[in-house]
Design brief:
The chain is an alpha+beta fold and 98 residues long. Helix content is 36%, strand content 33%. It has a four-stranded antiparallel beta sheet with strand order 2-3-1-4. The longest helix is centred in the N-terminal third of the chain and has 14 residues, at 14-27.
Length: 98
């Protein structure tokens, strides 16, 4: 079953977050199990962001989380955000084009 992880956080340093994310993408090339990432900003709260990460399954997401490159990314991201991120783990029930 497909799986989505939402990671919501607040930062006043989005350019640095983008740099750290690009660094993770380069470092995890060929290893990561994340299939797609959307990065969104909350229109009503401009310092609030959400990463929407798509995986083939919950198990592949957990595998991705254990990569040293992902661990390093999380550490660096933690230095750029205010407070703790909020995680939402979602099993995809239905997926279709409109």
């Amino acid at each position: 079953m497909a799986f989505i992880q939402l990671i919501e956080y607040t930062t006043s340093r989005p350019e640095e977050v983008a740099e750290v994310t690009a660094e993770w993408e380069r470092a995890s090339q060929g290893k990561r199990t994340a299939r797609r990432v959307l990065w969104a900003r909350d229109r009503n709260h401009p310092d609030r962001y959400c990463d929407i990460v798509l995986f083939d399954s919950y198990e592949s997401a957990m595998e991705n989380s254990q990569l040293p490159e992902t661990q390093e990314y999380a550490r660096k991201l933690g230095e750029l955000i205010e407070g703790e991120p909020t995680f939402r783990d979602l099993d995809v029930v239905e997926d279709h084009e409109l």
